[in-house]
Write a structure and sequence with these properties.
- The protein is built from ten helices and nine strands.
- The protein starts with a strand and ends with a helix.
- It has a six-stranded antiparallel sheet with strand order 2-3-1-4-7-8, sandwiched between helices. The chain has a three-stranded mixed sheet with strand order 6-5-9.
- Helix content is about 45%, strand content about 15%.
- It has about 280 residues and is of the alpha+beta class.
- A hairpin with a 3-residue loop joins β5 and β6.
Length: about 280
């Protein structure tokens, strides 16, 4: 059975200026900026746009070539009319946050939609889908694009009443976006300064090395952005040996055992010692 008309929802922030991108790709794109006819109409340059895809669309081809790897949108299908799909997506633009009131949702971000659906008790019956029959959400892990598919069960969905209300579970799930972005920053730092270091070799990739840093920072009881970068420098230079008292006892003790110093001062001392040990290695 056909899943209906194909649409591509593109993120105006990731592809700004999106409408120029569309006309560079297709002479007559059929699209709708979702911010039109909403309080966000003045922000049209960064509006998400719903594109109706015909067979062999150059927009879809270009998205596969460069947009999916930037997580700049997602594919959906629907048997409903284009107008019904647009109405549903505009409904999702404004959601009710449990503590902060009305918030604007970046619905064209595949990661936002994925994490919201993962927080739903039954994703295939979620009101987030509305008239959408199926959707495909690209995500980039270790520079590889993977697609997450959700198909709506053929059940009657109740008409939405008021704003979509985010729960605490939704908010917890969405908080992973900030961590994912920060993990990318740590991965870039490790790639720039410790590309041939032992941690990169042990973890297998910059992304996994960044994950090790984040996990280790939490396990050692350090908190904050600076703490993560200090530990990235230590582990980037010495790998997991930095936490092994039988290999690097002075460094490992500073990292794993509290003393009279405040935690951040102790971590700074460890970073200084790690640099000194690295310098000695280079001289030797």
């Amino acid at each position: 059975m056909s899943q209906g008309q194909r649409f591509l929802l593109l993120d105006g922030i990731a592809l700004e200026p999106l409408e120029r991108w569309l006309y560079e790709t297709h002479p007559t794109p059929e699209y709708e900026p979702l911010y039109l006819d909403t309080p966000l109409a003045g922000c049209r340059p960064v509006s998400p746009c719903l594109i109706t895809l015909e067979a062999h669309s150059p927009i879809w081809t270009r998205f596969l070539d460069e947009g999916a790897s930037r997580e700049a949108g997602w594919l959906l299908t629907s048997h409903a009319s284009r107008e019904e799909v647009i109405t549903h997506l505009r409904w999702l633009l404004f959601v009710q946050h449990p503590w902060q009131g009305e918030q604007v949702l970046r619905i064209a971000s595949p990661r936002v939609m994925r994490y919201l659906l993962e927080a739903e008790p039954q994703p295939s019956r979620s009101p987030l889908l509305g008239p959408i029959n199926a959707l495909w959400l690209p995500s980039v892990e270790d520079q590889v694009v993977r697609w997450h598919r959700v198909t709506r069960e053929q059940v009657e969905l109740a008409e939405p009443q008021g704003r979509f209300a985010l729960t605490e579970r939704h908010c917890d799930s969405l908080s992973r976006i900030a961590w994912h972005r920060f993990r990318g920053e740590l991965a870039a730092h490790l790639s720039s300064y410790f590309a041939t270091g032992p941690l990169m070799h042990q973890a297998g990739s910059a992304d996994e090395a960044a994950a090790v840093v984040i996990e280790s920072t939490a396990e050692l009881g350090f908190t904050g952005r600076r703490a993560h970068f200090y530990l990235a420098n230590i582990l980037g230079a010495h790998g997991l040996d930095a936490l092994d008292e039988t290999v690097l006892p002075d460094l490992a003790i500073l990292l794993t055992q509290a003393n009279a110093q405040p935690a951040m001062e102790r971590l700074k001392s460890a970073a200084t010692l790690a640099q000194t040990l690295s310098n000695k290695k280079e001289i030797a």
